[in-house]
Amino acid sequence: MANKLPHPDHDRGLEFDLSTMMSRRSLGMFLGAGGAAAALAACTPGGSSTAASPSASSAAATASATASASASDTATPGPTLTRAIAECGVEIPKETAGPFPGDGSNGPNVLEASGVVRQDITSSFGTGTAKAEGVPLTFTLTLLDNAKGCVPLAGAAVYAWHCDREGRYSMYDSSLENENFLRGVQEADANGQLTFTSIFPGAYIGRWPHIHFEVFESMSNATAAGQVLAVSQIALTEAACEDVYATAGYESSAQNFPRTTLKSDNVFRNDGGIYQLATMTGSAAAGYTGGLNVTI
User: Fold this and answer.
1) CB 154 within 8 A of CB 191
2) What average pLDDT score do residues 123-146 get?
3) pTM confidence score
4) Are 295 and 91 in contact (CB under 8 A)?
5) Which CA distances in Å does 126 have to 27, 49, 175, 186?
6) Between the ranges 33-37, 54-58, 61-65, 123-127, where is the mean pLDDT highest?
7) Which residues, listed in sequence order, are joined to residue 234 by a DSSP beta bridge?
8) Which string of DSSP letters, residue by residue, matches the chain?
9) 79 band by pLDDT with thresholds 50, 70 and 90
């Protein structure tokens, strides 16, 4: 496949991200040096965390550990990948939805379309016929209620979207205006978990590879484009990106990826994406799985 530069709209996207960046909440009151190191510890697939929050009560830590452990037995397709319990008490950084949300805030609205509630978001639905090609990626989000000691946010809903392997967004790129792939809504189960099946997104100029998501209080709120509880982004790991971008179809991503780091990215640079960096396993040959705790 010939190399293809990102659509010109991506230049506008970077400017939009810079101008509409939502302010982050201060993290300075959360952890000391030892706690910050503990927060970087990641769980293994299907396992529970071995780190304990130095600032959380034992009850909160126990509740989080129980939720993580039970999720490994009851979660539907996809791994139970969570980050350290030490994250509890730190809300997910709030970010811009960017210029291509498709939620009705700046143009087309996919949330009110029949068919948007789905786990597999690789193909378009409705009148769209295209399917996004690329390395398989399955990602699981675990929603946690910060106000209640990080208990699972059962019944909440997430709308997730991201670009294709060439850095294009459906519904906005001039060649994809009639397509809506790589967009979908899922409802959190009793463990606060939901999973999407997708493809590994590409890298375009000015941004670290990422997945956008919005959290809603309920499925009805999500499909009516109602009040949003949180808007944030998932950062993908450097090792996974390097592995995937060496494969056919990701030629433009291989060129663009080295130009931006987590510390220079206009979204993740505040803290290097420490609370948004997915836990990932897999390979380009077999596909990747990822997971992230989302504390709200």
Assistant:
1) yes
2) 97
3) 0.75
4) yes
5) 42, 41, 17, 17
6) 123-127
7) 211
8) ----PPPTHHHHHHHHHHHHPPPPPP-TTT--HHHHHHHT-BPPTT-------SSS-HHHHHHHHHHHHHHHHH--SS----B-GGGTTSPPPP----S---BSSSS-B-TTSTT-B-SB-SB--TT---B--SSEEEEEEEEEEGGGTSEE-TT-EEEEE---TTS--TTTSTT-TT---SEEEEE--TTSEEEEEEE-----TTS-SEEEEEEESSHHHHHTT--EEEEEEEEPPHHHHHHHTTSTT-HHHHHHGGG--TTTSTTTTTTTTTTTBPEEEEETTTEEEEEEEEE-
9) very low
Mean confidence (pLDDT) of the chain: 78
Residue 41 burial by CB count (10 A; 0-12/13-18/19+): exposed, middle or buried?
Answer: middle
Q: Which CATH class is domain 9-295?
A: mainly beta
- Domain map (residue ranges) of the chain: 9-295
What pLDDT, on the 0 to 100 scale, is given for residue 87?
56
Give the span between the Cα atoms of 108 and 99, in whole angstroms.
Answer: 11
**Residue 57 confidence (pLDDT) above 90:** no
Give the alpha-carbon dihedral of 148, 229, 95, 65, to 10 degrees: 30
Contacting residues for 149 by C-beta, under 8 A, at least 6 apart:
56, 57, 59, 60, 63, 64, 88
- Amino acid letter at 39? A
Token code pair at residue 261: 């780091």
State the residue for tokens 């600032």: 55
281 within 8 A of 289, measured Cβ to Cβ = yes
Say how many C-beta atoms besides its own lie within 10 A of residue 178's C-beta: 13
